[in-house]
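Troubleshooting log. The previous run stalled partway through. Resubmitting the same two chains, unchanged.
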Amino acid sequence: MSHISVSIDDEHLESMGSVARALQDQGMQVEQVLDGVGIITGSISEERRLLLASVPGVAAIADSSLAYQLPSPDVGIQ
Amino acid sequence: MIGASPAIRKGQRTGRFIVVFAEDMNRADLLGAMRGGLTVADSRDFEDDNVDLEQTTEADVTIFSELGMAVMTTEPAQATAGPILSVSPELVHHVLPADEASYVKGYCDGVADLSARLLAASQGGAGLPAETGPPFADTAEHTWGLRATRVDSSPLSGRGIQVALLDTGFDLEHPDFRGRSVTAQSFVRGEGPQDGHGHGTHVVGTACGPKNPSTGPRYGVAHEADLFVGKVLSDAGAGDDAGILAGINWAVANGCAVISMSLGADVAAVHPPYTTAGRRALDRGSLIVAAAGNNADRDAGQPGFVGPPASSPYIMAVAALDQRLEVARFSARSLPATRGGQVDVAAPGVDVLSSWPMPTRYNTISGTSMATPHVAGLAALWAERTGLRGRELWAVLSMESDRLSAASVDVGGGLVLAPQ
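Second attempt completed without errors. Output:
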């Protein structure tokens, strides 16, 4: 399973719930439907990932597994 | 300049005058101000405001309604009635000089100017006054960052502007923020919005700290802005894409004009989720600013690179400046040959004093994390002043920044300044 973010095209911004259900039907575990920015986050197995691209409303699929780490509070450059 | 005669070219003026009107003048006022025996042509008399200059040659005055300007053939003294802001001689603009001799002379002038500039630079005489004077320093009244960005003399406060800071949360009990409007939400599992690190409280302070803190100099820019604190980094300083995207979504949904993110990953690429998020945020009137990154070690000859989320073309990447307005040694450089991976603007980011969780109260630290909330606060001031949002607010910040001698790959369009 890999974490992904699915960008929704402009035409489907008003119907992201339906797109999320269609993504679930293809095996995606949907975690967040972010209607302010038109992104659905979640995870999917590598073998099923390609299936998501054919879901109507999907503009792009990207890995979203970057980690962010601040230095500890006592470090001078933050 | 098409059709200009040699005689006019020699004088550099057409003999006509350009009049600029007060902004709030309506059509009747314009005509009233300009009439008095003069023939008047109004751009609104032509289809779609397309003025055909051939048709207007007989008119003494041609009014360009959309520009609030007019060109007139008579002496300026005849146009003193009405709210006129300025009258200037119309100048002739050349595409190229007319003959070879003047072209060569122009070329010589250009080379002379260039050589003078290069010689001055090699003798250390180049640079802006702010860069050649003494370095900025904190005073009893203001931090050096507020002085360099001219916040200390700005009448704006960010009142009515919603500013989101996505970070490690905020010390909700900090005495400097008593009575302020603060909306706080955590996107970190198992942790509330209270700041257990310090970084978040520091950036909130720089962007939106009070005009009169309990002790010490003023350190905050938009002191009357409405605060939206989104915790997307844990007390241990760790976060992931899902939490950051959720925070952006929350800020956009709440109508925040400015979203500040002092965070980044050391990855030399554009990260697609932030391209989408940044573009949609701008579409909905939210400007995202993010730290360029601290992965440079310029003393060792390593300029670093801008990473996500600042590497998104739709997110404003902020570099850090020192007290001499030179790029900080840790401040990352634009990502080579990558659309969007560039530094966009710069702000103070060395030895920045701001709020810190109690009982420590204040802390002075450095980083592009500290430069970013300066720009967020300044964006709130410009949003208040102009009423503009999204891409237009971005454009205002770019227009209203001071160009620096440092390379644009390091400082972008330069030092962002406060409205006066």
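Takeaways: The radius of gyration of chain A is 15 Å. Chain A touches chain B through 28 residues (CB under 8 Å).
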